[in-house]
Amino acid sequence: MAFIDTTELPIIERKPGWHGRYFNSPSMTFGHYAFDAGAVISSHDHLQEEVWHVIEGELEITIGAETRIAGPGFVGIIPSGTLHAVRAVTAGKAIVVDHPVREGFF
């Protein structure tokens, strides 16, 4: 599958306020999110390296012991096995990429 129209993917609300469209490449998992103000992803870790790219709005991203407010164009890179959390300061959009693939994620 070389081309994907993400607008045709189903929207899945895996956590309250996080509306995602998901797909995998051979080695990565992608999530195109629309998020609601106040939506939270609690502190957790996983095997995959994860990259958050904020497209619209603002997120408070915590990676380890460091917290930043991330706006459009901001990227947060989370190493494998690192505790991280995300809180939506405003409504907006973000693209999240995990490597390697997150099996059974969606």
Characterise the protein shown here.
With 106 residues, this protein is mainly beta. It has a domain at 32-99: Sandwich (Jelly Rolls), CATH 2.60.120.10. It contains no helices and ten strands. It has strands spanning 12-15, 18-24, 29-35, 40-44, 49-56, 59-63, 66-70, 75-78, 84-88, 92-99. The strands form two sheets. Strands 1-2-3-10-5-8 form a six-stranded antiparallel β-sheet, with no helix packed on it. Strands 4-9-6-7 form a four-stranded antiparallel β-sheet, with no helix packed on it. A hairpin with a 2-residue loop joins strand 6 (59-63) and strand 7 (66-70). The two termini are 18 Å apart. The relative contact order is 0.29.
* CATH homologous superfamily classification of the domain at 32-99: Jelly Rolls
Poorly predicted ranges (pLDDT <50, ≥5 residues)?
none
From the alpha carbons, calculate the radius of gyration and give it in angstroms: 13 Å
Approximate shape: globular
Number of helices: 0
Helix content: under 10%
Sheet with the most strands: spatial strand order: 1-2-3-10-5-8
β-sheet strand percentage: over 45%
Please report the distance between the alpha carbons of the first and last residues. 18 Å
Secondary-structure element series: EEEEEEEEEE
Provide the CATH topology of the domain at 32-99. Answer: Jelly Rolls
CATH architectural category of the domain at 32-99: Sandwich
Mean pLDDT equals 97
